[in-house]
Design goal:
Shape of chain B: elongated
Oligomer: heterodimer
Largest interface: A-B, 24 and 31 residues
Order of helices and strands of chain A: HHHHHHHHHHH
CATH superfamily of the largest domain in chain B: P-loop containing nucleotide triphosphate hydrolases
CATH architecture of the largest domain in chain B: 3-Layer(aba) Sandwich
CATH topology of chain A: MetI-like fold
CATH architecture of chain A: Orthogonal Bundle
Strand order of the largest sheet of chain B: 6-7-8-3-9-10
Number of domains of chain A: 1
Number of strands of chain A: 0
Structural class of chain A: mainly alpha
Strand content of chain B: 25-35%
Largest sheet of chain A: none
Radius of gyration of chain A: 22 Å
Helix content of chain B: 25-40%
Number of strands of chain B: 14
Bound molecules: adenosine-5'-triphosphate, magnesium ion
Number of helices of chain B: 11
CATH superfamily of chain A: MetI-like
Chain lengths: ~240, ~350
């Protein structure tokens, strides 16, 4: 036992990346992670939001109530939500390859991340919309708004702070997913953490990636909180 | 002018169908405020939604200024809704928009130019007495002020009909009175036909010209407020004037429950009846008010004169009078009963 540990310590000591070399390793990885999460969030928001609006308004009492379509859409979203990310990623490899022509790299990671993120975000936003009092939508209808105008001003507009809160949660989940995607060679912080930290016992890199991920998540959370505050009148005025 | 003809609303279909509104005929003239009351579940809110065209009636017509709106296709319905201003309970304002932005909403939907919108919003806020609160957010306004913003928003597109569902419910009595005064003022200035749905009977007394009682989706009583409160047979009239608890009569005298049953009850009826019967009348409870310049109300008096003489004396002054049966020796239970069955929803 004691021997094993000291051997491991030796291997680690041998393999550790010297501190000055860390930036060269981590900066490109950080760029890749940001690119992955950024692209995915763009896709997630632009597709997840309309799905949420459709779900909310096809549900009973919505602007275009439609039980059948609602059930189908809701069911599809649930499927997307029910698979653990790692399983989803593995399961859709053929699809990913069909869409991107490859199954490694950023492009390949964006497909499963989006597929996991869209239903997640759609449910988050649907919940936010449900929390807007129905009478606000009724007032907007009574004011002569078209469905699009009502959705924009009385539904999404009222839910903006809540949606930004959901966006924060979703972005953080996507940072996590990007790390998982790193294990299949998608690049980014996750890839560095796995290949250096896990496979080569490089504790310096391991620690650096952990700190980097914590920092990223913290920044996203603080940024999200600030946006929520900026878009909520009573929080803004009190400050 | 708004006319409802055979308005029917059925929720669901087949054996589980629920007829919430059953063949309603209602007419509200310009400059008239109709109060719709009734017990919970009677269909008041459903009626409001059908009038506001937020719910489509199952059958029947909603005629505003001569045009039937109920049968319009969805797109034209949206335009038609603009003729009807709706005030919601708790105002239902956009929480992230200022008072001015909220009032501007219908104009913005319509595509009115920013300059015109600004002028109109300023005028509307001025009208409801909130010019100094234009840039405040709803959370910075009192409940009454939020309702005023709601009223201004409802008036933005110059509707000819104003609809209000429980707009004063939940406000304190003073704020309610100022809202009522504002509504009456607006009704006069803009010649609006107002449909005012409420379960608060004292608000009806203050706001309405005519009143209708809805029960199980049917209008069971409808008429001018003065007629209702001066008719002792009117359930609605009695519900509008709850009797205050009466003091116990002196030993040997009988309590009489009176109500103004005519528009010509003299103000000094107490003295007149007293003189006619040759004995002083003990005033045990009273609630008198003026509606459209006519005195109306209820009173409980105690007297010793024989019943037939007393009844005749009261009748001569236009008062409906019934002796209150003294049930037992307990003086409290001899007081005039307050809550009759039909008063429970008052
Ligand atoms: N969307 C709906 N679907 C089915 N039934 C409904 C619907 N809306 C209302 N109802 C039913 O219609 C009846 C009348 O409801 P409504 O809300 O109009 O009553 P109300 O007179 O406004 O009562 P309250 O004084 O409690 O507000 C109730 O029995 C209610 O359950
Ligand atoms: Mg109601």
């Amino acid at each position: 036992m004691g021997l094993n540990i000291s051997a491991a310590v030796q291997i680690r000591a041998l393999a550790d990346t010297p501190l000055p070399e860390l930036p060269a390793l981590l900066v490109p990885a950080l760029g890749e992670t940001l690119a992955m999460v950024g692209i995915v969030m763009l896709i997630v928001v632009s597709l997840g939001t309309p799905i949420a609006v459709a779900l909310h308004n096809m549900a009973p009492g919505g602007l275009f109530e439609h039980r059948g379509t609602y059930s189908v859409l809701s069911w599809i979203v649930n499927i997307g939500r029910s698979l653990p990310f790692l399983v989803l990623m593995a399961a859709i490899v053929p699809f990913t390859r069909f869409v991107t022509g490859t199954n490694i790299g950023i492009a390949a990671a964006v497909v499963p991340m989006s597929l996991a993120g869209i239903p997640f975000f759609a449910r988050l936003v649907e919940n936010c919309l449900r929390d807007v009092p129905r009478s606000v939508t009724a007032a907007a209808r009574a004011s002569g708004g078209s469905p699009l105008q009502i959705i924009r001003t009385a539904q999404l507009g009222e839910a903006v702070p809540a949606i930004l809160g959901g966006l924060t949660i979703n972005t953080i989940a996507m940072i996590e997913y990007s790390a998982i995607a790193g294990t299949i060679g998608a690049g980014g912080i996750g890839y560095v953490a796995v290949t250096y930290g896990y496979q080569r016992f490089d504790q310096t890199v391991m620690l650096a990636t952990v700190l980097l991920l914590i920092a990223m998540v913290t920044i996203v959370q603080l940024g999200g909180d600030a946006l929520v505050k900026a878009t909520t009148p009573h929080l803004r005025r009190r400050a | 002018m708004i006319t409802l003809k055979k308005l029917t609303k059925v929720y669901g279909n087949g054996p589980g169908a629920l007829t919430v509104l059953d063949n309603l005929d209602i007419e509200v003239a310009p400059g008239e405020i109709l109060a719709v009351t009734g017990p919970s579940g009677a269909g008041k809110s459903t009626l409001a939604q059908c009038i506001g065209l937020l719910e489509r009636p199952t059958s029947g017509q909603v005629i505003v200024n001569g045009e039937d709106l109920a049968s319009l296709p969805e797109r034209r319905l949206r335009v038609a809704r603009r003729r009807i201003g709706t005030i919601f309970q708790s105002a239902s304002l956009l929480s992230r928009s200022t008072a001015a932005q909220n009032v501007a909403l219908p104009l913005q939907y319509l595509g009115v130019t920013p300059a015109e919108t600004k002028a109109r919003v300023a005028e509307l806020l001025e009208r409801v007495g909130l010019a100094h609160r234009a840039d405040h957010y709803p959370f910075e306004l009192s409940g009454g002020q939020r309702q005023r913003v709601g009223i201004a928003r409802a008036l933005a597109l110059r509707p000819s009909v104003l609809l209000s569902d429980e707009a004063t419910s939940g406000l304190d009595p003073e704020t309610t009175l100022s809202m009522v005064a504002l509504l009456r003022q607006l009704r006069d200035d803009l010649d609006l036909a107002v449909v005012f749905v409420t379960h608060e009977m004292d608000t009806v007394l203050h706001v309405a010209d005519t009143a209708a009682r809805l029960e199980d989706g049917r209008i069971v009583e409808q008429g001018r407020l003065v007629d209702l409160v001066t008719d002792h047979d009117s359930v609605l009239g009695r519900a509008l004037q709850p009797r205050p608890a009466a003091a116990a009569p002196a030993p040997g005298s009988t309590p009489w429950a009176l109500s103004y049953d005519s528009r010509a009850v003299p103000a000094d009826w107490l003295q007149r009846v007293s003189a006619e019967l040759g004995e002083p009348l003990a005033l045990l409870a009273a609630s008198i008010q003026s509606i459209d310049g006519t005195s109306t109300g209820t009173a409980t008096v105690g007297l010793r004169a024989p019943a037939h003489q007393a009844a005749a004396a009261f009748a001569r002054q236009g008062l409906h009078a019934v002796p209150v049966r003294t049930a037992g020796p307990d003086p409290v239970s001899t007081a005039v009963p307050r809550a009759t069955e039909e008063l429970q929803w008052a």
